[in-house]
């Protein structure tokens, strides 16, 4: 079987770099230990090898489709959904009290990463079900919880989030779906929702939609949006009856074609009954809980696809003989033997770039998951929550944007074969293209980062992050080989401060258009520095393992982490100054007056 | 009809920025004038509107396929091939003596750009036929020329170039196809060739393959490769008879699915007769003529796809209402009207980036084509030829790599719709992915640039280019608004010199591996500076037109050129210092010893 991810690297990141084991000393996670999670992750790898990876290509070739008001997905989903339920893959991170296993998100995200690297068309079904169940647990009435959540945690019923409408796109203030209060306290929901991932599929008994809509008479904008639980079939006297939730179509997509993306119409042929979740007009706040989880999950999916692409291109590079080493006069000697292309410097650049993006991203996902777990475990709650908030747009966007570049680079390693449908790189390129669009585009994530997260509590989150990074810089200085990179990282922290010092006055003067005009460039800068931080941590632990003669992994394994850190600092960290200069440049190009929009013709 | 390119911009680049009219004062092109070429290009636009653009989506959805030893292409090709023959689209640039119209390459490339922007699945058929015919005219015997060339120029017969073999890929020194000399002076050709663009299709009477093979007993490597003309059907006594050229398959591809890419087997079921073109063992040198033409054509195809994607995303951005302008406290007022997304700064960034890449590339193509034309016209022949040689890898690679980024950005403008098959952006994204692979990957082009072109004649070509750029800097200084950019461009010329001063000693010491290790980064740097030069020229002519009150185009048109130049210098030129620092960094990461290749696992 082809390799799609590295269990060794994942374990090294969890145990050595991020010391997940420390989490198990908290009360919440006291039932876990290193051995339990290693066994669990091995079982996930086994499941992925057997049930997920062998179907990735076929799910692309035989995509989900609409027929007679329902979506038909690949038949392997029957096995997958059943086994996922039995293994408790959806319910695992939930509280014991809610029927879960109280598994750390750090471990659960690692498990999902494995599954998504094996087959990125699958785990979204679980993730949305878990997210919807979590939302119900947080805000719904006890009756709703009891009715829906246990079946969802067992993956007997699926869940979705229904936000987007055709006329509004990402602008949620403009949604027009309506909710009319009924005498029994429930609502009749009416409206159209598009791009609904996991919106309809066989092999589950029901689909539970979490829907944003406006209660009649609600104020305009985001302050008038409420959240509802609207099942496809409503439980009535022990039965499930039609709730007029109609599947109007399936969007045919560039990638992730096995993962359905549906058009759903509520209340067209009769009332779709829904129940309010949380308070009226506060639906958006509730939904953000699920959106934040989905954003981390989306980034994780991006790094997983990039991981699979990396190993596919690596295998090719190791096995494909082509060309020769250059001689000392710059020519190639036809009598010398052909070499495998992994020997060529430019192919190594392409492999290093992929490895740096993939492993740096997994490391960040682990870091961010720990902030989440410590928040739940009530350890340094405010601090961990702020760090989680700050880094959520990064862990979503870095693997989306740079993962896209990684997969593109992987395809390039194969030359002409990369463009052929017989090789899987072209599929990964198509699959990963959605990651920078799902759950808020890169533009939106960047505005969230610069417009909300950097400024919240007067920059408190950024200050906490800077302290963390400074501490890691200090530790890394113990190794001479890491000192240069550690200093570079420190200088980059200063660079970010410098950029903000230049930008923030625009916000203070009320010129938010100008403040946020280069938010996407700032995201690129900030994300690169954050991943540079992760690589310094990784290299530090690798150096420590080498120094201690640790034999958990091979010497080459640890050396490879240090080499990749060196690559990242030589090739990627060199981009930051240019990005900073773009943002600090006073010339206004993007915020020219509106009447000149014809300038683009 | 949707817009896919701008005739106004093309004319402005040809006439104003690059003064193509000056070419008509040479003897070779004396029959041309501004009016003739405007009429010609309008007719090409008309042809493209009617016969090419309406079929672009369908050719993707119903791709070329193999059946019973032949390739079936979309039926519209029957009309297209016939009309192309009648319009003289293949023969136009050939000499009068050879049956052509002696059209400047500058004009012919502009025409092909229009056609490729309309439908990039089509013009490759013409381009390869022209390239093969040109190769025969340059090196074949009079008998071969008389037999094949006239039919090819009329597009009654097609042409191909057959280089790649499964075991050799881009490493042409390893090709193993054989040629056995026969008593009549012809050869029997045996071997397999893959990835043969335009390799087989209906609607032409014959296909003329230009094949690289080894004459029995030839030396190993590139010094033992010869070039042969091997027709699919050989002319015999007025008839065309089977020549045992078997079409073994069609490669199913990610994009350009209407353009066939075939697997061809020579001499398997009987002898495939071929005739030597040029001298024995000098085939590679001959083939390079065609490859250089094909490289320019490939880059042109990339910028054409990016142009079509740009206008598709621009139309969406102008028509799609979503979101609102930010208020002075950074919030959005739900009572204020929605705006079209073109009003958002980040969408403008995405549009500017595309426009800058597309128009900068077209300008470079025009510049390069003029070097070619002046070489043919015997004006400053050596100088123009050297500049052509130096810039060929750039005009191939910049639109390949940055064009890919442009199309990706265009898709992003559409958000979720960009990922849907109903919108064409996803097709352009797939189509353009081949451009950085065709005719030598970016890695190979970069080695050509740094390893051959920069060093040839002791750096003469680069010196000539620097003189040209300096002259344009000097002219641009006349306008105050351009002075900053002009100085930046000058500084970047210096930066390239600095990089080379640091790199060249590696080559002088015989360490070519090290010299070329970062060739791809150098390509990125050099390409960006070259396009920056083009933008300075464009902005200068736009400023001049504004100053003179020129009404050929609207004021907004000229202003848009200046704005896009400002965008390019603010956002793209800021990347060059970082790239230079990567190359000048002494740390060796890519050229680590070979035994550590397991480091990538």
Please give the structural blueprint.
The structure is a homodimer of 601-residue chains.
Chain A: H1 7-17, H2 34-52, H3 56-61, E1 65-67, E2 70-72, H4 76-87, H5 105-118, H6 123-139, H7 142-153, E3 157-162, E4 178-181, E5 187-197, E6 206-215, E7 226-231, E8 233-236, E9 239-242, E10 245-250, E11 261-266, E12 272-277, H8 283-319, H9 345-376, H10 381-413, H11 425-432, H12 442-453, H13 460-476, H14 480-508, H15 512-516, H16 519-548, H17 555-572, H18 576-584
Parallel strand pairs in A: 3-6, 4-6
Antiparallel strand pairs in A: 1-2, 4-5, 5-11, 5-12, 6-7, 7-12, 8-9, 10-11
Helix pairs in contact in A: 1-9, 2-5, 5-8, 5-9, 6-7, 6-8, 8-9, 8-10, 8-11, 9-10, 9-16, 9-17, 10-11, 10-12, 10-13, 10-16, 12-16, 13-14, 13-16, 14-16, 14-18, 16-17, 16-18
Keywords:
alpha+beta; two-stranded antiparallel sheet; 601 residues; five-stranded mixed beta barrel; 12 strands; homodimer
Written description of the protein model:
The structure is a homodimer of 601-residue chains. The first copy, chain A, is an alpha+beta fold. Chain A is 53% helix and 11% strand. Chain A contains 18 helices and twelve strands. A five-stranded mixed barrel of chain A has the order 4-5-12-7-6. Chain A has a two-stranded antiparallel ribbon with strand order 1-2. In chain A, helix 5 packs antiparallel against helix 9 and helix 16 (519-548) packs antiparallel against helix 17 (555-572). The longest helix of chain A is centred in the middle third of the chain and has 37 residues, at 283-319. The first copy, chain A, is globular. Chains A and B meet through helix 8, helix 9, helix 10, helix 11 and helix 12 of A and helix 8, helix 9, helix 10, helix 11 and helix 12 of B.
């Amino acid at each position: 079987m082809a390799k799609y991810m590295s269990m060794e690297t994942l374990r090294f990141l969890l145990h050595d770099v991020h010391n997940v084991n420390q989490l198990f000393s908290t009360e919440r996670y006291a039932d876990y230990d290193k051995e339990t999670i290693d066994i669990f992750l091995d079982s996930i790898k086994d499941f992925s090898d057997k049930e997920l990876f062998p179907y990735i290509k076929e799910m692309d070739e035989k995509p989900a489709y609409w027929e007679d008001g329902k979506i038909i997905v690949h038949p392997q989903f029957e096995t997958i959904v059943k086994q996922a339920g039995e293994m408790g893959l959806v319910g695992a991170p939930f509280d014991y009290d809610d029927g879960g296993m109280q598994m750390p998100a750090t471990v659960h995200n690692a498990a999902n990463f494995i599954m998504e690297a094996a087959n990125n068309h699958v785990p979204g079904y679980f993730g949305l079900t878990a997210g919807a169940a979590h939302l119900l647990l947080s805000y719904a009435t006890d009756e709703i919880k009891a009715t829906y959540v246990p079946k969802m945690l067992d993956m007997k019923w699926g869940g979705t989030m229904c936000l987007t409408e055709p006329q509004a796109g990402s602008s949620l203030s403009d949604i027009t779906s309506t909710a009319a209060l009924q005498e029994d306290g429930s609502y009749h929901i009416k409206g159209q929702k598009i791009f609904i991932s996991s919106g309809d599929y066989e092999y589950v008994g029901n689909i539970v939609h979490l829907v944003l809509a406006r209660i009649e008479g609600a104020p305009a904008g985001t302050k008038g949006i409420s959240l509802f639980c609207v099942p496809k079939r409503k439980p009535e006297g022990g039965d499930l009856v039609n709730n007029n939730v109609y599947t109007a179509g399936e969007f045919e997509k560039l990638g992730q074609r096995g993962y359905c993306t549906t058009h759903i119409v509520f209340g067209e042929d009769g009332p779709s009954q829904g129940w309010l979740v949380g308070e009226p007009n506060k639906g958006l706040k509730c939904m953000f809980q699920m959106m934040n989880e989905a954003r981390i999950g989306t980034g994780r999916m991006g790094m997983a696809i990039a991981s699979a692409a990396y190993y596919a291109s690596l295998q090719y590079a190791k096995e494909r003989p082509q060309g020769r080493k250059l001689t000392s006069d710059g020519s190639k000697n036809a009598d010398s033997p052909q070499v495998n292309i992994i020997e060529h410097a430019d192919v190594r650049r392409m492999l290093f770039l992929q490895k740096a993006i993939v492993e740096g991203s997994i490391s960040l996902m682990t870091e961010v998951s720990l902030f989440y777990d410590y928040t739940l475990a009530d350890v340094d709650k405010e601090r961990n929550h702020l760090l989680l908030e700050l880094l959520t747009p990064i862990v979503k966007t870095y693997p989306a944007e740079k993962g896209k570049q990684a997969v593109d680079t992987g395809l390039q390693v194969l030359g002409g074969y990369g463009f052929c449908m017989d090789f899987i790189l072209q599929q990964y390129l198509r699959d990963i293209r959605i990651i920078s669009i799902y759950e808020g585009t890169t533009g939106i994530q960047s505005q969230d980062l610069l417009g909300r997260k950097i400024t919240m509590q007067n920059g408190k989150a950024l200050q906490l992050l800077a302290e963390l990074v400074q501490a890691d810089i200090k530790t890394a200085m113990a190794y001479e080989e890491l000192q240069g990179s550690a200093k570079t990282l420190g200088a980059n922290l200063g660079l970010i401060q410098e950029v903000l010092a230049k930008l923030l006055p625009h916000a203070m003067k009320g010129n938010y258009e100008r403040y946020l005009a280069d938010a996407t460039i700032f995201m690129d800068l900030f994300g690169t520095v954050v991943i540079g931080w992760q690589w310094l941590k990784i290299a530090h632990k690798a150096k420590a393992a080498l120094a201690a003669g640790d034999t958990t992994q091979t010497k080459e394994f640890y050396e490879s982490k240090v080499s990749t850190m060196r690559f990242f600092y030589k090739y990627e960290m060199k981009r930051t100054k240019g990005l900073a200069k773009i943002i600090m440049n006073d010339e206004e190009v993007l915020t020219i007056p509106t009447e000149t929009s014809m300038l683009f013709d």
